[in-house]
Amino acid sequence: QVQLVESGGGLVQAGGSLRLSCAVSERTFRMYAMGWFRQAPGKERDFVAGISVSGGNTYYADSVKGRFTISRDNAKNMVYLQMNSLKPEDTAVYFCASPRVIMNNPPRTASAYYYWGQGTQVTVSS
Predict the structure, then answer these.
(1) Which of 3, 20, 68, 102 has the most CB atoms around its CB within 10 Å?
(2) Whether 59 contacts 108, CB under 8 Å
(3) In what order do the strands lie in the sheet with 4-7?
(4) Tell me, what's the pLDDT at 29?
(5) pLDDT tier, 84 (very low <50, low <70, confident <90, very high otherwise)
(6) Nearest to 24 by CA among 105, 90, 95
(7) According to the model, what pLDDT value does residue 31 have?
């Protein structure tokens, strides 16, 4: 059973930064594209960022482009989301996720992902 564990969330003022981490238990982690999603209260789970197997290709939602950076360390089975210039509208629970099938590039829809972490809360105050 693949396990994903997020960490690094917290409370930060607008304009601040946070770095989220996602630890993946599966030793074949390096074969899977990975994604970060977020979900605010009463809203759907939205794509934030995705990264290809090698880390050479990254994808972002328009709302975070230029502020967030996704990266991965395949040797450590880790995925990261560096979040800069945070805004109150970035407040949400953030999830990392992995598809069940091997694919090079990350999908943008939540339904394409099978394994999910428990989420980490990010709160940005104005």
Answers:
(1) 20
(2) yes
(3) 4-7, 18-24, 78-83, 68-73
(4) 81
(5) very high
(6) 95
(7) 86
